[in-house]
Design a protein that fits this description.
mainly alpha; ABC transporter involved in vitamin B12 uptake, BtuC; 77% helix
C-alpha cells in the first residue's frame, strides 16, 4: 500500500491539483476577499486569454512543436481590430477578418516549419518580433478606446447572473471541444503518435506535415480570438496588448503535464494549471504584491513545469519498483 500510494502521489496531475488547493487555502487565509465572487470574476477574467491560447498550444506541444508567436498574433489582431474600427468598418465584419488574419499568421509559421523544415522554436521567435512590429506599423502607439459598447459590455459582463465572465464561457466551450478531439478521436491519437515518433507516424500513413500546418493555423485563429476578447475586455485596442503572454501560455501547458518533448499530456491537467496560475496571481495581487514579483512567479512556474514532471516520473518509478516481489526484483537485476 505505501508503494501504491507513493506512485499515485507521484502523478504530476495529482501534485498540480494539490498545489491548486494549497494556493486557494493560502489565499483565503491571507485575505478575506480572496474567496469573494468579485475576486473570482477578476481571477477568471485575468486568465481568459492565456487559457484560450493554451488549448491549441497543447496540441502543438503534444505534436512535438512550439509556437512562441501567439502573444504577438494577439497584439497584431488587437491592432488590426482598432485600425479597421477607425476606418469605420462594422464590428461584425472586423471580427471574421481578424480571425482570418490570425489564421494567415499561423499559416506562415506552419509553412516555414513544415515546408522549409525549419525548427518551430526559431521560426516563432522570429515571427514573434515580426508580428509585433506589424502591429505597431498598423496602429502605432495609439489606443482605440471607442469600441462598440454592446461588445465591450458583453466582454465585461458575466454569464447568467453568476460571477463567471462571459469570455471565460467561450474558453469552457472550446475546452470541451478540444478535450474531446484530443482524447476521444483518431485525430487526437495522431497528434500523440506524431509527438512520440514523427518518422514512425509518417510511415504509418499520417499526413504529418499537413497536420502540423493545420495546428499552426488553428493556433493563429485562437490567438486572434484572444486578441479580440482582450481588446473588448479592456475597451482598448493597442499594438502592445498581450506582450509577454506567450511565457504564461507555455508555462501552464507544461505545468499541466504536457511533455516538452511531445507525445504525452492531458488537457485536463492544462486546465488545472491555468486555474493554478490564476489563483497564484490573484492571491499575490489581492495582497498588493508588485508586478515584478508576478513576473518572477511566472518564470518560476515555467521552471517547475519543466523539472516537476521529471521528478514525479522518477517518484512513480520508485513506487513501482518498491511494489515488485523480491524474487522478481532479483531476477531483473540479474538480467
Amino acid at each position: 500500500m505505501p508503494a501504491e500510494l507513493r506512485a499515485r502521489l507521484g502523478r504530476w496531475e495529482t501534485l498540480t491539483v494539490a498545489l491548486l488547493v494549497c494556493t486557494v487555502v493560502a489565499g483565503a487565509i491571507s485575505s478575506p476577499d480572496f474567496l469573494t465572487g468579485g475576486n473570482l470574476n477578476s481571477m477568471l477574467a485575468d486568465i481568459t486569454e492565456v487559457a484560450l491560447i493554451a488549448l491549441p498550444m497543447t496540441y502543438i506541444i503534444v505534436a512535438g512543436e512550439i509556437d512562441l508567436s501567439v502573444a504577438s498574433v494577439l497584439g497584431l489582431s488587437s491592432a488590426l481590430l482598432g485600425a479597421l474600427w477607425n476606418h469605420n468598418w462594422p464590428i461584425e465584419a472586423i471580427i471574421p477578418f481578424v480571425l482570418v488574419a490570425g489564421g494567415a499568421a499561423g499559416l506562415l509559421n506552419g509553412l516555414l516549419v513544415t515546408r522549409l523544415g525549419l525548427p518551430s522554436l526559431a521560426v516563432t521567435i522570429g515571427t514573434l518580433t515580426l508580428y509585433r512590429g506589424l502591429a505597431f506599423v498598423i496602429l502605432g502607439d495609439t489606443a482605440v478606446a471607442d469600441l462598440p459598447t454592446q461588445y465591450t459590455d458583453w466582454a465585461f459582463g458575466t454569464f447568467a447572473g453568476t460571477e463567471i465572465p462571459n469570455p471565460f464561457i467561450v474558453f469552457v466551450v472550446l475546452a470541451v471541444i478540444f478535450g474531446f478531439v484530443l482524447h476521444r478521436t483518431t485525430f487526437g491519437r495522431s497528434l500523440f503518435a506524431i509527438g512520440a515518433n514523427e518518422e514512425a507516424a509518417f510511415f504509418s500513413g499520417l499526413r504529418v506535415k499537413r497536420i502540423k500546418l493545420g495546428l499552426f493555423v488553428l493556433s493563429g485563429v485562437i490567438a486572434a480570438l484572444a486578441g479580440i476578447i482582450f481588446a473588448l475586455r479592456f475597451g482598448s485596442a493597442r499594438a502592445d496588448n498581450g506582450t509577454g503572454l506567450e511565457l504564461s501560455v507555455v508555462a501552464v501547458v507544461l505545468l499541466g503535464g504536457v511533455s516538452i518533448f511531445g507525445g504525452k499530456g492531458h488537457l485536463l491537467g492544462v486546465i488545472v494549471a491555468v486555474l493554478l496560475l490564476g489563483a497564484i496571481r490573484s492571491a499575490l495581487t489581492i495582497n498588493d504584491v508588485a508586478d515584478e514579483v508576478l513576473t518572477i512567479v511566472t518564470g518560476s512556474l515555467l521552471l517547475l513545469s519543466v523539472l516537476g514532471p521529471s521528478a514525479a516520473a522518477r517518484l512513480r518509478e520508485r513506487g513501482r519498483g518498491g511494489a515488485r516481489p523480491p524474487v522478481e526484483a532479483g531476477a531483473g537485476a540479474a538480467h
